[in-house]
Automatic annotation (TrEMBL):
Residues 78-213 form the C1q domain. The keyword Coiled coil applies. This is C1q domain-containing protein. InterPro entries: C1q_dom, Cerebellin_Synaptic_Org, Tumour_necrosis_fac-like_dom. It holds the Pfam family C1q. The lineage of its organism: Eukaryota, Metazoa, Chordata, Craniata, Vertebrata. The keyword tRNA processing does not apply. SUPFAM superfamilies: TNF-like.
Length: 213
């Protein structure tokens, strides 16, 4: 009887110990689970923070690119705002009369700020939209024809200057034009007219930008 009671008591103790151990394991598992959940929460917050930082960085990069673009535009506008040229025909004496009209090429360049006038073609190409002023003079000496030149914008005649006198004389004119980028301005030399130039640079073509638009 005593032996049986001893066995029952021992069994009860074992069961109680096993229950305590199970409770400890359960509590330990819950603790680990809570720690994992906490770490997952922190990782999620870090991920969200990184996403926010990435968005903010992209916004900063976009603003930086915009600023760089504005700086480049302002630099280009400043460079393009300095436009002026002046050139004489040549030192070769009479030119004309001819059977057909041609573009006069002013090869003796005095000023060409921005290099938008071409001494190879005689054409000024507009670099920036704005208002420009052009001045030109043609000189002729004696017979058989007076001087005459016409300023063209692209293929359109704008203003003409003619000298019908057979003696030495100048024909001069000027014009102010609103032009856009890519427009071309040049001097047309009509048939049956003539011009003269020498070391005194009597026949000239000049232009400059007044202001941008």
């Amino acid at each position: 009887m005593r032996h049986t009671l001893h066995l029952l008591l021992s069994l009860g103790c074992c069961l109680a110990g096993a229950q305590v151990l199970m409770e400890k394991e359960k509590n330990g598992s819950d603790t680990v689970r809570l720690l994992l959940l906490e770490q997952l929460k922190e990782l999620k917050e870090m991920k969200e923070g990184l996403a926010t930082a990435k968005t903010e960085l992209q916004a900063v990069e976009a603003r930086l690119l915009l600023c760089e673009s504005h700086i480049a535009e302002q630099k280009g506008a400043k460079e393009n705002s300095r436009v002026a040229f002046s050139a004489a025909l040549s030192e070769g004496g009479d030119r004309g009369p001819l059977n057909i009209g041609i573009t006069l090429i002013y090869k003796k360049v005095f000023t060409n700020i921005g290099n938008h006038y071409s001494p190879a073609t005689g054409i000024f190409t507009v670099p920036v939209k704005g208002v420009y002023c052009f001045i030109f003079t043609a000189f002729s000496i004696g017979k058989p024809a007076g001087s005459g030149v016409t300023l063209y914008k692209n293929a359109e005649p704008i203003v003409t200057s003619l000298n019908w006198i057979d003696a030495q004389d100048y024909a001069t004119n000027a014009v102010t034009l609103e032009l856009k980028v890519g427009d071309q301005v040049y001097m047309h030399f009509p048939q049956d007219r003539k011009v003269y130039d020498d070391l005194l640079n009597r026949t000239t073509f000049s232009g400059f930008l007044l202001f941008t638009l």
